[in-house]
């Protein structure tokens, strides 16, 4: 079974600085997707960024980028120029990409990010 | 972008009553819907996966007679918490994934339902 580990229960960053959230995963599959979701106090689940395992290029979305190391099974999220609105719980998630495989998401336990003004 | 509507957003009811939560995909056909439960300061815990027109698949430890899931159409799934008790109080979230070209897209989440049983 696949597992996702987020080793940092809490992180903090100064406004305008850069922070990196860690995520590692375990799988025997070769085709899969990785996601970072943000959950602010409103508890909405907001997709931040997505990475296909077959793509070597790291995904980026404006101030958000990932460092995807497939061999190391690592998928960290970098937030640049942090803003107060980035404060939230961040969840790393895995989904199988195999045809006929499970579509369910496997979540890590989350990292609570605090942004200090 | 794809929108998933979840209703109600907050419900308070007496112990022993049954509560129904709806999850609708508004602009795509959701072949698969997922129901999660989230305790305070914890991650999402998958309760069950439902496919349109078939019985839901429950995760280990989830009581299927307590949490009834129906996915009768490609746009609607419902979760009914039967004979609810205070320990069922929690935050419940649904998500949906589509067919065809949508399958490569990430799951789309509803805004969640806060359930409080008195």
Question: Helices, strands, pairings?
Answer:
The complex is a heterodimer of chains A (117) and B (118).
Chain A: E1 3-5, E2 10-14, E3 19-21, E4 24-26, E5 32-39, E6 46-52, E7 60-61, E8 64-69, E9 74-79, E10 88-96, E11 106-107, E12 111-116
Parallel strand pairs in A: 2-12
Antiparallel strand pairs in A: 1-4, 3-9, 5-6, 5-10, 7-8, 8-9, 10-11, 10-12
Chain B: E1 4-7, E2 10-13, E3 19-25, E4 30-38, E5 44-51, E6 57-58, E7 67-73, E8 76-81, E9 90-98, E10 108-109, E11 113-117
Parallel strand pairs in B: 2-11
Antiparallel strand pairs in B: 1-3, 3-8, 4-5, 4-9, 5-6, 7-8, 9-10, 9-11
Keywords for this entry:
heterodimer, A: 117 residues, mainly beta, 0% helix, globular, B: 118 residues, 4-stranded antiparallel β-sheet
Outline of the structure:
With 117 residues, chain A is mainly beta.
Global geometry of chain B: globular
Radius of gyration of chain A: 14 Å
Taking the sheet with the most strands of chain A, its summary is: 6 strands, mixed
Low-confidence stretches of chain A: none
Compressed to H and E, one letter per element, the order of chain B equals EEEEEEEEEEE
The computed structural class of chain B is mainly beta
Helix content of chain B: under 10%
Number of strands of chain A: 12
Residue share in β-strands of chain B: over 45%
Helical fraction of chain A: under 10%
Query: Total number of helical segments of chain B?
Result: 0
Helix count of chain A, per DSSP? 0
Distance between the termini of chain A: 41 Å
Beta content of chain A comes to: over 45%
The best one-word shape of chain A is globular
């Amino acid at each position: 079974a696949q597992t996702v580990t987020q080793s940092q229960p809490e992180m903090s960053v100064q406004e305008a600085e850069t922070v990196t959230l860690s995520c590692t995963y375990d799988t025997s599959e070769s085709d899969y997707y990785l996601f970072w979701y943000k959950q602010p106090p409103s508890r909405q689940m907001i997709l931040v960024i997505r990475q296909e395992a077959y793509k070597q290029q790291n995904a980026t979305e404006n101030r958000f980028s990932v460092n995807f190391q497939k061999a190391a099974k690592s998928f960290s999220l970098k937030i640049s120029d942090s803003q107060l609105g980035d404060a939230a719980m961040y969840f790393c998630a895995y989904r199988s990409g195999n045809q006929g495989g499970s579509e369910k998401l496997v979540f890590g336990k989350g990292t609570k990010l605090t942004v200090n003004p | 972008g794809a929108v998933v509507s979840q209703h109600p957003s907050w419900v308070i009811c007496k112990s022993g009553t049954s509560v129904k939560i709806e999850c609708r995909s508004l602009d795509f056909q959701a072949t698969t819907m997922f129901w999660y439960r989230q305790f305070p300061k914890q991650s999402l815990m998958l309760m069950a996966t439902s496919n349109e027109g078939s019985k839901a698949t429950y995760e280990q430890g989830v009581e299927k007679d307590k949490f009834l899931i129906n996915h009768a159409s490609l746009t609607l799934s419902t979760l009914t918490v039967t004979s609810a008790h205070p320990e069922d109080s929690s935050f419940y979230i649904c998500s949906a994934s589509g067919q065809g070209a949508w399958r490569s897209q990430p799951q789309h989440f509803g805004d969640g339902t806060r359930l409080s049983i008195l």
